[in-house]
Amino acid sequence: MSDSNLDDAAPETRSDLDLVNLSLWMREHVAGFTGGELAAARFKGGQSNPTYLLTADAARYVLRRKPFGKLLPSAHALDREYRVLSALANTEVPVPRVFALCEDDAVIGTGFYVMDYVPGRIFWDPRLPELGAAERATIYDELNRVIAALHSVDLHSVGLVDFGRTGGYIGRQVARWTQQYRASETESIPAMDNLIEWLPRHIPAADETSIVHGDYRIDNLMFDVQQPQAVALLDWELSTLGHPLADFAYHCMTWRIPPGVFRGLGGTDFAALSIPTEREYLATYCRRTGREGIAERDWEYYLAYNLFRIAAILQGVYARGLQGNAASERALQTGRATRPLAELAWQQVERLKLF
To answer: 153 and 103: one domain?
Structure first.
């Protein structure tokens, strides 16, 4: 968690954590924790796993827990987050140090893990209006370096060879998000219907497997408070084994999406801002990962698939907003991006005649 988020972590007068039990548990399981009066402040935001800043004397930690109450068996898999963060500790991927995982609900009422607090900056606008040209260029190079490093991690050496299924990732994902979209469908969107029919029949033949983050974007990477250097990649809830180019294309959707739709870079004057173009950014990734290049047809497929995926996710957000099961106004506003994202995906399929 970052200093830039501290304004969103106002201390609660009535904490939902049992700080007495938690302090006793931390004394036994968190290296270097010596006690002192423990305080907790919950970070605001949309995390499905509530996240807290813990303070005790001069020490600061971050705690992530499962929601209280009955949960679906595969949901909120904190053990997977903890495992991947532990495995990547000695790699080129910057991650917070994790101290301990607790799967005993008796301590605070649900499972949780504790990790190091990492001070840093998070950038929400990919155009980086608060920075100068030179720093923008370095930030984007760091973004590129970190995802290339992640996709280059040797699964055997870090013990993650069984972190997910090998091969067939995109086919499974298309089927999963088709099912999710149909379950939350609120109106007819012809572009989504077209994608649901087209995507499974045109999956690129080349298949490979690496660790994938699942939600790699600029606001999930924390940077040093002063230098344009990445210090922590956050939010590993969707991480698994999958196709690295699908993961990278999800990140690169930013270059295709207009700023007014979903925090995109579409239409940006890249040269004026010293931000690389999509083609330049892709070439740098290929160089770092030892690729000669990516076939244009395959690359456009990965982008169309990811636009479909995010549209399906946002449709679910919209449906929950209509049902009153989410922060209604925000959910409805976010969910309205489903149609334009689906149409953007289908337009590029039609434009390139990828049938």
So the answer is: no
